[in-house]
Design brief:
Layout lengths: L2 H6 L11 H9 L4 H12 L4 H12 L4 H23 L5 H15 L9 H9 L6 H9 L1 H6 L2 H8 L3 H23 L15 H4 L3 H10 L3 H18 L3 H15 L3 H4 L5 H13 L4 H12 L8 H10 L1 H21 L7 H14 L1 H7 L9 H26 L16 H9 L1 H16 L3 H7 L14 H11 L9 H16 L3 H14 L5 H10 L8 H17 L9 H4 L13
Helix pairs in contact: 5-7, 6-7, 11-13, 11-14, 13-15, 14-15, 15-17, 15-19, 17-18, 17-20, 19-21, 19-22, 20-21, 20-23, 20-25, 23-25, 24-25, 25-27, 27-29, 28-29, 29-31
Length: 584
């Protein structure tokens, strides 16, 4: 018998059941082999008197004994598995688990026998506490560990953080990669962007579902995952870990796992914020609720602010808070009200500030809300409101009959204070960027070109972050026709994008994404100079080279050679959000 055969019979001898080795030995030491085989069959066959006469009948039909025994065995195993699942649900708790523990004790020595292994695994799966010794044996054997149910693995993981970390780590890497793939996706659209999927849809993602299943109802494992996320967020500053923190909690909420939801102090806050994210707006009722949670943080429990700040640092939360802030500012213009007189606006700023301060708070372990700078409210926001007023004034002026028109040119300069705020104040910068996204979405070219120079230098280079550039490139598709104008392209590319391309690979990628989408709108001379400026260097990564090659191919297709002139129109790729003109 080879090693494979030995595994088939693993553990039988300990139970006093004859195996292949015993038969081999009997045959080696006997004088009448046929008699010995018959005796072995009688001693080890199915001991049912009524079978003795039926077996020869099977022989007549040419059914091998192995086939018969195998089918009986499979049938019995199925019955046993059903019975184990039933025992796990019946009678008093202590009694049912006592039965299962006895069964495990009897069967565990056969755990390596492939045909019996499912039975042993099933018993362990139904035991809320598998004996420590058995867990250690499973953990020490790679194949057994792989074969055991997640219910058993949870019991192993909760006392082995390193092993659990090894299981979780590839999932977290996959999650971050998926987020980055969306941000750098070649599909640029104002309708479908990074923030389009609803929270419920996002929670159905593979990684969140797998983690939810791995955690089950185990608070200890949930805490471990949160610890991993905090550590990784601190190490990388990657805000997608904050998204996962919120998604995981809400996924457990969807499954009504009260064992975890009731002990996570952020549960109700996250649940309320989740509803706001779904609507992409914080309404008054929910604003009061969220404020209640923040005001309700008691002395001695300030540490919960670290968790709340991480929930608020989730880009989906920041996006919702920033969009709500812009909407509030527009309303205030219409109401002739100053920002400092709006409690709702102040609450949004408070939450933005808490979210933006998450990394510093968790890093310093000083759990108190960041101080809001008065000038943000008294100077910066009124300045944004004055931009809104400038736009109103200009558009009203444009609509007047020509003899009444005042010759008011659109204001082209920006207050120095605006640029300074964007460089020095994180919250001002975030709101300023969202205001620029807002005017771009409104196709307000004048306002866009006026404020664009302020983006070259921003707080912590926020204007060159992936999320902002992803949204900006999407919104710029609405200004597609402007790309034919030299002045617009010079301001956008030379004045903004190209200032960072060489030092920031992600900016290089986003510009190429944009051009892949809008190249047919750009004036040919400008396109040529951009193609030169964007050529990858030796240091460029694969993604940049790949995008550049795609762009070059597209531009080659556009050059009509005499022979191809008739085919060219069919090669023009239709673009999802921008109607393309027929090729020239």
């Amino acid at each position: 018998a080879g090693p494979g055969q030995a595994a088939m019979y693993a553990g039988l001898q300990e139970l006093g059941v004859a195996n292949g080795e015993d038969l081999k030995e009997t045959l080696t030491n006997c004088t009448e082999p046929l008699k010995a085989i018959e005796q072995f069959q009688t001693e080890n066959g199915v001991l049912l008197p009524s079978l003795q006469s039926a077996l020869p009948f099977l022989d007549l039909h040419g059914t091998p004994r192995l086939e018969f025994h195998q089918s009986v065995f499979d049938e019995l195993r199925e019955k046993l598995l059903e019975r184990i699942s039933a025992i796990a649900l019946e009678g008093k708790v202590e009694e049912r688990y006592k039965k299962l523990e006895d069964l495990l004790e009897k069967s565990f020595s056969l755990v390596k026998m492939p045909s019996i292994q499912p039975v042993v695994m099933c018993v362990m799966k139904h035991l809320p506490k598998v004996p420590e010794k058995k867990l250690k044996l499973v953990m020490a054997d790679k194949d057994l560990y792989k074969a055991c149910a997640v219910e058993v693995k949870r019991q192993i993981w909760q006392d082995n953080q390193a092993l659990f970390g090894d299981e979780v780590s590839p999932l977290l890497k996959q999650y971050i990669l998926e987020k980055e793939n969306i941000l750098f996706s070649n599909d640029i659209s104002v309708l479908h962007n990074f923030f389009s999927p609803s929270p419920k849809t996002r929670r159905q993602g593979e990684v969140v579902q797998k983690l939810t299943q791995m955690i089950g109802k185990n608070v200890k494992l949930y805490d471990m995952v949160l610890q991993f996320l905090r550590t990784l967020f601190l190490r990388t500053r990657n805000v997608h870990y904050c998204t996962l923190r919120a998604e995981l909690l809400m996924s457990l909420h969807d499954l009504e796992i009260s064992e975890i939801c009731t002990v996570d102090p952020c549960h109700k806050f996250t649940w309320c914020l989740d509803a706001c994210i779904r609507e992409k707006f914080v309404d008054n009722k929910r604003a009061r609720e969220l404020q209640g949670f923040l005001d309700g943080v008691k002395k001695g429990q300030e540490q919960v602010l670290g968790d709340l700040s991480m929930i608020l640092c989730d880009p989906f939360a920041i996006n919702t808070l920033a969009l709500s802030t812009i909407r509030h500012l527009q309303d205030l213009v219409g109401q002739d009200t100053l920002p400092r007189e709006s409690p709702d606006l102040l609450l949004l700023l408070r939450m933005l500030s808490l979210g933006q301060g998450a990394w510093d708070m968790i890093d310093s372990q000083v759990f108190k809300e960041p101080k809001m700078e008065a000038e943000l409210i008294t100077k910066f926001l009124p300045m944004l409101m004055s931009f809104v007023v400038d736009d109103h004034t200009f558009s009203v002026d444009q609509k007047l009959p020509s003899d009444e028109k005042g010759q008011i040119p659109y204001p082209s300069t920006i207050p120095e204070a605006f640029t300074k705020f964007l460089q020095e104040n994180r919250i001002a910068c975030e709101i300023g960027l969202y205001y620029i996204l807002h005017i771009t979405k409104q196709r307000n070219k004048n306002a866009f070109l006026r404020l664009l120079p302020a983006l070259v230098e921003t707080f912590s280079d926020l204007a060159f972050s992936d999320i902002f550039l992803h949204l900006l490139t999407g919104n710029l598709t609405l200004l597609g026709d402007e790309f034919a104008l030299e002045e617009f392209c010079t301001s956008l590319f030379d004045g903004f994008f190209l200032t960072a391309c060489s030092r920031k690979e992600n900016v290089h990628r986003h510009v190429l994404r944009l051009l892949l989408h809008l190249h047919h709108k750009v004036a040919p001379a400008k396109l040529e100079s951009l193609q030169k400026a964007l050529e990858p260097t030796k240091q460029s990564g694969e993604a940049v080279k790949e995008l550049y090659n795609q762009l070059t191919e597209k531009l080659e297709l556009r050059k009509p050679s005499p022979a191809e002139a008739t085919e060219t129109p069919s090669m023009e790729l239709p673009l999802p959000t921008v109607p393309t003109p027929a090729s020239r």
